[in-house]
Amino acid sequence: MTQMICSPSKYIQGKGELSQLGRYCALLGAKGAYAIVDPYILSVYGQEVADSFERAALPVVQHEFRGECSMEQVEQLIGGLDLGIGVIVGIGGGKTLDTAKAVSHFAELPVVLVPTVASTDAPCSALSVLYTEDGQLDRYLHLRRSPDVVVADVDIIAKAPARLLAAGMGDALSTYYEARACRRSGAVTEAGGTGSIAAFALAGACRDTLLAYGAEALRDCREGIGSDAVGRIVEANIYLSGIGFESGGLAAAHAIHNGLTVLEECRHVLHGEKVAFTTLVQLMLEQAPQEEIVEVISFCRMAGLPFTLSQLGLSGTPEERLMTAAEASCAEDNPMGNMPFTVTPQQVLDAILAADRRGQQVLEGDC
Asked: What is the pTM of this model?
């Protein structure tokens, strides 16, 4: 089977990189830029963005993005584009960046992404996750190519709430275990081929970096310090996880996350927070070694990530409701089929309940 690995044309990470954004866009040959920006980021950094483009002598329109990453929003943004725009820029969190990628895809324009949080691995992938206007998963939009440039400013990311960095760690935590499952099954990844040595190595480096630097990075992030540890976790959450999941493959953890989106009770929980729990569920499905399960729960506990149903807002949820999520996780368009064995909704439900019991044991001190 053909192996494939995808990545952004250029990944740039450092301190103060936002001030260079206009120059990076100009290097693409663009004559004008359309920036889709989170409201908070626009209010705090909008002038810095404008100054960066002015220094590069490149016109920019900054659009405040409010709403869901939905096809409806994407179509509205495309309809408002000026014909002179040469590059789409996304500045903000995962949904803003996924929206920018989708707009660039349909407008057939290059895209530059500036993640201002490291809460997901969305910036590096050739994929936009689209939702309905009420927050349910709609579909994965496969893009023609990876982002042209990703610019990660560690100083900005370090000033974001530590919960967002932790959520990114939860999302990144699944990368190795899902890539391993795909490697065992020979599944075709989001990149279009089977997982390569390089992709699996990046997935492993992602896990190792999280375990080695996660606690220190969270401490520094709470102080707003863009330390070396924060930089390492930013790279793990965005780049290592982004390439690792796309070219290494998704499996049960993200399939079950997608299933959980049908439950309104946990829609307030961040993507990476749900994925942290569903990573534990995948390990239960696989009957993974106890030391691996303990390691994942310990990491989640350190990072303040959910490892019980109660922590997801699903305390007391009837089993039939959980079965609805389990059935959705096994839908044909979900990556559950990438597991190295056939998985049924009943097995998913059993694994969810087993993960919850194991997590409760830890909370009660009966490890």
From this structure: 0.92
